[in-house]
TrEMBL record:
Residues 1-21 form the signal peptide. This is Translocon-associated protein subunit alpha. The keyword Signal applies. Its main location: endoplasmic reticulum. Residues 237-256 are annotated as: Disordered. One of its GO terms (cellular component) is endoplasmic reticulum membrane.
Length: 256
C-alpha cells in the first residue's frame, strides 16, 4: 500500500510538471502558487471556537503581586459550549521576559489532567507553582496555556492568562534571617565576654593582685568568765584544796 501511494504521488507530480511546461510553451506565465502554511503556522495551534476559558487566582488573591518562595495557586475554568466532547490534556505555565513574551525566563512543570469535558458542560482545573527567590524585585510576564483535543484528535490550545506580574521579596523570611543573625551575634558576644573574663582572671593572679586572707587563731573561751580546770589532774587539785587556808575571820595571837 505504501509503495502504491508513493507511485501515485510521483505520477501526480510528473503530471503537474508537464502541465506547467505546456503552459509555458504557450506563452502564458502563471504565478507560483502561494504556500498555504509555513512551518511556524503548522506548529501554531489555535483555540476551539465553542470553548470558553476563565482564570482565577486563589493564593494570593491579588494575582498581580506574587511573593518569591511562596506558593501560588490558581483555577482554570473550561466551558464546552459545543456539541462535541473535549479532553483536557494538560496546562503549562511560564515566566516570560516583559519586553518580549517569546523569550522564556522559566518554565514550570506541566500539570497533566486527561479529563473529558462533555458537550454543554464545564470543569475546573487547579495548578500551583512557586516563583524562584532569585526573581524577587522584578516584573515578569506570566503565561498560562491549557491544551485539549476533540474526538477526531484535533489539538487546540487556549491562553487563559497573559499578563505582567510583580515578584515581591518575602518579608517574613527576611525578618527571620535578621532574628537568627541577632541570636548568633548575641551568642558570639557572650562567648567572647566569657573568654575575656577568664583571661583577665589568670592575668591578675600572675601579677599578684589576688589577696589572701590571713588566718587568725582564736583560743577557746568559757562562758561568763569561768576558768576551766578540767585540764589539771585531780590529785593536784585536791592537794591545793587541803593546803589552802579556809576563809574566816583572822585570829589574834596571845602573847605568853
Amino acid at each position: 500500500m505504501k509503495l502504491r501511494s508513493l507511485l501515485f504521488a510521483a505520477l501526480l507530480l510528473s503530471v503537474g510538471v508537464f502541465v506547467r511546461g505546456d503552459d509555458a510553451a504557450d506563452g502564458e506565465v502563471q504565478d507560483e502558487p502561494e504556500v498555504a502554511s509555513t512551518a511556524e503556522d503548522l506548529l501554531k495551534v489555535t483555540s476551539a471556537s465553542d470553548v470558553r476559558t476563565a482564570f482565577l487566582f486563589t493564593q494570593p488573591e491579588e494575582g498581580t503581586d506574587l511573593t518569591a518562595g511562596k506558593i501560588v495557586k490558581y483555577l482554570i475554568g473550561f466551558q464546552n459550549n459545543g456539541d462535541n466532547d473535549y479532553t483536557v490534556r494538560f496546562s503549562d505555565t511560564s515566566f516570560r521576559y516583559p519586553m518580549d513574551y517569546s523569550y522564556h525566563v522559566q518554565n514550570f512543570t506541566a500539570a497533566k489532567y486527561d479529563r473529558v469535558v462533555p458537550a454543554h458542560q464545564e470543569s475546573t482545573f487547579e495548578y500551583a507553582f512557586i516563583p524562584n527567590e532569585a526573581f524577587s524585585g522584578r516584573p515578569f510576564g506570566l503565561v498560562v496555556n491549557v491544551h485539549y483535543e476533540d474526538k477526531e484528535g484535533n489539538i487546540f490550545t487556549s491562553t487563559v492568562y497573559n499578563q505582567t506580574v510583580n515578584i515581591l521579596e518575602d518579608e517574613s523570611s527576611v525578618s527571620g534571617e535578621n532574628g537568627l543573625l541577632f541570636i548568633t551575634l548575641l551568642g558570639l558576644g557572650g562567648f567572647a565576654a566569657f573568654i575575656a573574663y577568664q583571661f583577665l582572671g589568670k592575668l591578675g593572679k600572675k601579677a599578684g593582685f589576688s589577696k589572701k586572707r590571713a588566718a587568725v587563731e582564736v583560743g577557746t573561751s568559757n562562758k561568763k568568765g569561768e576558768i576551766d580546770f578540767e585540764w589539771i589532774p585531780r590529785e593536784v587539785r585536791n592537794m591545793n584544796d587541803k593546803k589552802s587556808p579556809k576563809p574566816g575571820s583572822p585570829r589574834v595571837k596571845k602573847n605568853n
